[in-house]
């Protein structure tokens, strides 16, 4: 079994190193508080008022499936959707929902089934959240696909491949959800590319490069709006501590945050809106828990999954200074979760936080205090998942589509 330390921590020991290796979208239509993270992207345009029908999808690495849940709109409790869990390729890691709200995509590492790596694609039933495989799925990726991001218009998808140091790029068929490699794919990345995010204008892609024996960095790319091809931004890559993993953007597209798995920190950067270049924020990095991985933002709050290997994990919560991007811990943070917490997501209505716990095989759920950002466990938490849950994404039904959150 390849657990998170085998993959995410693969650059910290020699033995584990052997195992690893369409036009610009406008921000004006996004609801206040919308963010992008390394494992999902958000729809262009308002998605309307919050409605009760919301879903959560969780990848289960070592049971080779995705668990689907409906969210209780009042208290945040999770209930499995019909047919859950849904089969994937070998060792699914990350999951993302397309901005149009029709399809979900899963990065399949593919190790213990003999696959070289794939992306599984599903159509989302907007009534009950059930997933059905897209014709032609799974679609070939590089060696070790681990995280996935989709651009704001839902035309292109990008996947990091940790073992061949590349990024696979795809055009998305709006009608069928099928993926087709874009010109020039795969694109060169830094050593051990992990987290990936597309900015809210659809102009830039950012990727964390973990390798601790070399310089750990964040690479930036511009997106060709016609065909989705990537070109490295001038000045890229930028220094990013000693073990950057997941990455997220704030709702104004002005700040980028990356968790550092090795130094137990969160790094923050300002984004040049014209060039896409990154500049480290004054005071960055900020202290996180032990081995932070996933990160999700909601308006003025940031939430980080602290793995704390082989022990009780946590979610660290921060307030974001809207002028400078600086992070300040929320009173009471960190908030205890299950064993080895890996990823974190915010509900579509922005009321709840969900965190995957790899070794306790469940999902912790919390309500968010809208004033302070403090977290309180919801009734029934944690909720059972498959074996080794890793990635997580949410969506809500809006005009017959299950759209990712504008957080």
Structure, described:
The protein is mainly β and 407 residues long. It has one domain: YVTN repeat-like/Quinoprotein amine dehydrogenase (Methylamine Dehydrogenase, Chain H, 7 Propeller). The chain is 2% helix and 45% strand. The longest helix is centred in the first third of the chain and has 6 residues, at 14-19. The radius of gyration is 18 Å and the shape is globular. The protein starts with a helix and ends with a strand.
By CATH, the superfamily comes out as: YVTN repeat-like/Quinoprotein amine dehydrogenase
Profile the largest sheet.
Answer: 6 strands, antiparallel
The assigned structural class equals mainly beta
Total individual domains: 1
Percent strand equals over 45%
CATH fold topology: Methylamine Dehydrogenase, Chain H
CATH top level is Mainly Beta
List keywords for this structure.
407 residues, mainly beta, six-stranded antiparallel beta sheet, 37 strands, disordered N terminus
Q: SSE layout and pairings?
A:
Elements: H1 4-7, H2 14-19, E1 36-37, E2 54-60, E3 65-71, E4 78-80, E5 86-87, E6 92-97, E7 103-108, E8 118-124, E9 131-133, E10 139-140, E11 145-150, E12 156-161, E13 166-172, E14 179-181, E15 187-188, E16 193-198, E17 204-209, E18 217-223, E19 230-232, E20 238-239, E21 244-249, E22 255-260, E23 265-271, E24 278-280, E25 286-287, E26 292-298, E27 301-306, E28 312-320, E29 327-329, E30 335-339, E31 341-346, E32 352-357, E33 362-368, E34 375-377, E35 383-384, E36 389-398, E37 401-403
Antiparallel strand pairs: 1-21, 2-3, 2-36, 3-4, 3-5, 6-7, 7-8, 8-9, 8-10, 11-12, 12-13, 13-14, 13-15, 16-17, 17-18, 18-19, 18-20, 21-22, 22-23, 23-24, 23-25, 26-27, 27-28, 28-29, 28-30, 31-32, 32-33, 33-34, 33-35, 36-37
